[in-house]
């Protein structure tokens, strides 16, 4: 299943595991790469740039296939030294980077000078256009269905993806709500060249998180998410739990970020993944959890998605429309 994305980035299948805070570590990323898809180590999951460099080397010991690093620039209580993380990526010999958050202009010159291809994650068509103009090689378009930061426009992938395809010429990765072969075919039909999955890769054998989280994703349906920080214009989609409901109550009462900061600290979300205590903090999950029914290996998941997509495409080729005269 070759697309402009697979050709440009040298991977077998048009499937991406993007940056996933606390989860995008070597064991998952290598499994994705070995399955023929493109995985990303999450840079800021590592406590220091030196730790990121070691994680890159650890991943390389597990796979000889392409993988990348996600570098996200979003508002933070303690802003990380992004330039130092960028240098660790370059010195680690990584050739693919996924940027997210603010415009990637500050990274592009340095990455391009070192032969690194860049995918920028966007939540709006205007952001995709700006990213292409800035020189990125591809864009990942996050629809409203996605986990994490869906932006403030509330546009679903069904409209956002083709709208972006009408405006940019570089490859597009469709993100938000994708979990199976049906989604892959739909994304290709809408003008994308591949799909990005985060929530679906959480529920795999190799995801380095507690089994309680994986089982909860299987048990949940598409309704079990909350949109927090809406009143602060910094919306995040998270799994519904006691903490997310508490945050929403504080927001509804007129609370500001300082009133919820103790509840939403990233370290508390890490505790969820490590301990399996689902109410220890907020943790990301997208609407795609409504399409998750098992916890397979990454290899089985990727092979299933590709096989199902190929079967759907084959079946569609046998569909014949009724002409106006016949009608």
Describe the protein in words:
- The chain contains 14 helices and 10 strands.
- By secondary structure, it is of the alpha/beta class.
- It has 2 domains: 4-209 and 298-316, Alpha-Beta Barrel (TIM Barrel), CATH 3.20.20; 211-275, no CATH class.
- The strands form 2 sheets. It has an 8-stranded parallel barrel with strand order 1-2-3-4-5-6-7-8, surrounded by 6 helices. A two-stranded antiparallel sheet has the order 9-10.
- It is globular, with a radius of gyration of 19 Å.
- 47% of the residues are buried.
Keywords:
single chain; 327 residues; eight-stranded parallel beta barrel; two-stranded antiparallel sheet; 14 helices; 42% helix; 14% strand
**CATH superfamily membership of the largest domain:** Aldolase class I
Task: Give the % helix.
Answer: 40-55%
Query: Runs with pLDDT <50, length 5+?
Result: 322-327
The largest pleated sheet is described as: 8 strands, parallel, barrel
The oligomerization state is single chain
| N-C termini distance | 35 Å
Write down the overall mean pLDDT.
95
Strand content: 5-15%
Number of domains: 2
CATH class annotation of the largest domain: Alpha Beta
Overall geometric form: globular
Strand order of the largest sheet: 1-2-3-4-5-6-7-8
What structural class do the secondary elements suggest?
alpha/beta
What is the radius of gyration? 19 Å
Task: Provide a count of the helices.
Answer: 14
CATH architecture of the largest domain: Alpha-Beta Barrel
CATH fold label of the largest domain: TIM Barrel
Number of strands: 10
């Amino acid at each position: 299943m070759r697309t402009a994305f697979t050709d440009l980035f040298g991977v077998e299948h048009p499937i991406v595991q993007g940056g996933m805070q606390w989860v995008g570590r070597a064991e998952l990323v290598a499994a994705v790469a070995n399955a023929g898809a493109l995985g990303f180590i999450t840079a800021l999951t590592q406590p220091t740039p030196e730790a990121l460099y070691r994680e890159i080397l650890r991943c390389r010991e597990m796979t000889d296939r392409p993988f990348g690093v996600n570098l996200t620039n979003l508002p933070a209580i303690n802003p990380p030294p992004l330039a130092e993380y960028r240098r660790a990526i370059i010195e680690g010999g990584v050739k693919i980077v996924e940027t997210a958050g603010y415009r990637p202009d500050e990274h592009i010159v340095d990455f391009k000078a070192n032969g690194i291809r860049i995918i920028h994650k966007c939540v709006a068509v205007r952001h995709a256009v700006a990213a292409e103009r800035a020189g990125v090689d591809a864009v990942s378009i996050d629809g409203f269905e996605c986990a994490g930061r869906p932006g403030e426009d509330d546009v679903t992938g069904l409209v956002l993806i083709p709208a972006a395809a009408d405006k940019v010429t570089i490859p597009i990765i469709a993100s938000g709500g994708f979990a199976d072969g049906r989604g892959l075919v739909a994304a290709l039909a809408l003008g994308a060249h591949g799909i990005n999955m985060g929530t679906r890769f959480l529920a795999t054998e190799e995801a380095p998180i507690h089994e309680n989280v994986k089982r909860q994703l299987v048990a949940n349906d598409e309704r079990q998410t909350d949109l927090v920080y809406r009143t602060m214009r910094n919306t995040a989609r998270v799994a519904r739990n006691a903490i997310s409901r508490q945050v929403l109550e504080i927001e509804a009462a007129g609370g500001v970020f300082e009133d919820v900061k103790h509840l939403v600290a990233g370290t508390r979300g890490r505790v969820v993944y490590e301990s399996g205590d689902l109410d220890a903090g907020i943790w990301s999950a997208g609407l795609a959890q409504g399409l998750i029914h098992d916890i397979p290996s990454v290899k089985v998941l990727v092979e299933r998605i590709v096989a199902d997509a190929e079967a759907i495409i084959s079946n569609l080729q046998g569909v014949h429309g009724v002409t106006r005269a016949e009608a």
